[in-house]
Each structure stands twice: as C-alpha cells, then as structure tokens.
Amino acid sequence: MVDTFWGYRRENGTAGVRNHIAVIPSVFCAAKVAQRIALSVPGTISFTHPVGCSQVGEDLEITAKSLIGVGRNPNFAGVVVVGLGCERFTPRELTEGIAATNKMVETVVIQDAGDSVKATDEGIRYARAMSQAASLEKRQEIPVSELVIGTNCGGSDMTSGLVANPALGVASDKIVAQGGSSILSELTELIGTEDILARRAIDENVANDIVKAIRAMEDRLTLQIQASSNEKRKNLISTGNYDGGLSSVVEKSLGSMKKSGDASFVQVFKYGGAPSRKGLLLMDSPGHDGEVTTGEVAAGAQIICFPTGRGTPTGFPGVPVIKITGNPRTYEKMKENIDVNAGKIILGMSSIKEMGGEIYKEILEVASGKMTKAEVLGHDEQFCITRLP
Fold first, then answer.
1. Cα maximum dimension of the chain
2. What predicted TM-score, i.e. pTM, was given to this entire model?
C-alpha cells in the first residue's frame, strides 16, 4: 500500500505542499521592491539575496540556475520576477526559466516601469491577481512518490549522529521505498565516508561520482585551510560541535551520513541543478546550512528535514523546515522551535525505528498542510545561494 499526502497538483505534474506566490529579484538592486510587493499581498513571499550582477562564468551560472530552480519549486503557484534592467542575469532569463513549468509568472523591470514606486505598484497588481487565482486551488490526495525531501543538519552535537540522523534515515528510507526522493548533501560533512557511501551506489558510475565529489571537496577545503593564517580557523568543525561532544570532522561525517538511511544512491547532481532520477540523491554542495537548503529547494524539495543537536530556529521562505533534535535538553530549552523530540531515544522512551516512523508521520502531516514551528514564527533565514571562491 502506497501512502499519500494532501498537496497541490501543478500543471507540469509536480506537487506542492504549500500554495504561495513568490517574488524573486533577479539582482540585489531589486530586493527592496520585491519586499514591498510581498508585504502588500497576503500569501506572498520575497527572496532577498546579494547576487545577480558583477558575477561571471560558473559563479553567475550557479546564481541563475538556483534562482530559476527556486522559482520552479512546486510550493509556489506563481512567481513575480523583479529586475532592475541592466543586470548580468536578466529578469527575462529568470522569467523564461520559470515559465517552463507552466505556472503563473510575470516580470517587473524597474527601469522600464520608470521608478521603484511604479515598479512596486505594478508588481502588487500581478501578485494580487496570482494570489486570487491560487486561492481557488484545492488540496488533493497525492502519492508519496511525488514527495521530495531535503536533509540538512546544523548545530550538531553527539546526539545528532547517535539518534536524530539515524531516525531521519529511517523516514528517508520509507519515502524512497515508495518511489519518492530524498536528498543528502553537505559534502564538507561527509569527508571520510565516501567509500562507505559508494558501496551503496546503484551502479559503478554513481559510486565513482560519489567518491569524486567528496574527495574534490576535501581537496578544496585543504587548500583553504593551508591559506589561513589563523590556527583557530583551520578546524573543520565548529566550537559548538566540540562543546556538544564531537571530536573531529570524521566523527561528525559518520553521523551526518546517517540521514540518508540504508537506500541505494541513484544519482549525484551539481548545486543549482535538478536530478533526473527519483530515489536517494547526493547533491554536490558545501556545508553551509542556508546554501544547502537553497540548493535542495532549487532541486525540487518541498520539505526540508533538519536535525539539530544544539538547536536553531531558522527556516526557509515558502518551504517548511522540520526541526528534529536528538538532545532532550535542547528540546526542553527550545520547544518553540523544535518540531520532533528524538531525544526520547536517549531517554529510553523510543527506539530509532519508532522515532523514524514518528518523523515520517510528521513529514506527511506537514506535506498535508500542518505548519512547522519555523513557519509559525516567521523564520525564513536559510535562503542563501553559494558562491564560488
């Protein structure tokens, strides 16, 4: 029997778990106009970022692909693109990339409108019309095979790798077993595990891709560490990780990989891109929480599952972030921010398998409309596009 959730079926066949209108600036110069449009229309969300111009080559391509990918995410019923008019990544290019999904999309160009006030008014008109049209959409029953979750951990401590990440891995396996997808990333926190993960690859090509991606990330970090003159900056794990009981990046990596469960990896894909297969996926990305979440959302993730041992309140605009902690003390201190208390495993009140079932149930409830605590509190800090050095 295949489980289901109640979501919004889009014209291109994908399914959203939210029904927002996104206002996306193509360049940082248009951010304030985008914010003002979103503030004027209920159910509308803006994406503030510092990029889109004075970039070249692959760095600019990553920005372009990431913004297009976020706009394509099925959680957004429509998109208003806002540009200045002279940026390298043109608003028309962003609009055309999003329009491929057949969702509602309109473009506002500040220089064409005449000034920021006129551009704001124009954008508000578009957003209002889209919001009204989106309000007619009804949730319908959709199989779990249409669900894509992103996994990402932050503020890790010793309980993360012991209980929270393995429990999430159980939930991830349940989704993948029914034809859905789960994305593992944070390659800076998978160093040393590449051979273990490669043994779970669906074929030799995927195995080679896993090893190549993680070792390339290790080489990149090695060069960055060697270039640092500050010995304190050479550590690959944070002071908070140390304080939480983690001794090294390898120990952290062995715990971090547990988020992926036991399924076979079917593909490795680049940051800013989208996978061509369904199943367990590895996204080639650094370990910054916001950058990872943004990449996973751009790849189509409708929900982010986020274990945190030490606790963090952060969320993502328009995409629910489920916070899971394996530390019962953290849960007691941060009940207003944490959705799932996997610390019950530490206290002997639950098993990893049972908690995995509880996380899976939470995912389906959130997919069907239940708001996460980050959503209720308005946390949207995790939108952050990676930059090449």
1. 64
2. 0.94
d(CA 336, CA 321): 14
Burial 332-344 (b: 16+ CB within 10 A, else e): eebeebbbbbbbb
168 is a domain residue: yes
Q: Check: CB of residue 286 under 8 Å from CB of residue 187.
A: yes
- What DSSP line would sit under 102-160, residue for residue? --EEEEEEHHHHSSHHHHHHHHHHHHHHHHHHHTT---EEEEGGG-EEEE---S--HHI
- Note whether 34 and 25 are within 8 A (CB): yes
Domain tally, the chain: 2
Residue 231 has pLDDT above 60, yes or no: no
What is the average pLDDT score of the chain? 93
Contact 277, 312 (CB under 8 A): no
- Where in the sequence is the domain holding 50, given as residue range(s)? 20-134
* Token output for 194: 């590449």
Residue 229 has pLDDT above 60, yes or no: no
CB count in 10 Å sphere of residue 220: 14
346 and 250 together in one domain: yes
Residue 240 in contact with residue 310, Cβ under 8 Å?
Answer: yes
Do 104 and 211 sit in the same domain of this protein?
no
CA 282 vs CA 116, 263, 285, 363: distances in Å: 41, 12, 9, 20
* Residues paired with residue 316 on neighbouring β-strands, in sequence order: 319
Question: Is the residue at 7 inside a domain?
Answer: no
Residues 120-128: contacts with CB under 8 Å, at least 24 apart: 120/33, 120/36, 120/37, 120/40, 123/23, 123/33, 123/34, 123/36, 123/37, 123/80, 123/82, 124/37, 124/40, 124/41, 126/80, 127/21, 127/23, 127/37, 127/38, 127/40, 127/41, 127/44, 127/80, 128/41
pLDDT of residue 240: 65
Please tell me whether residues 190 and 328 are part of one structural domain.
yes
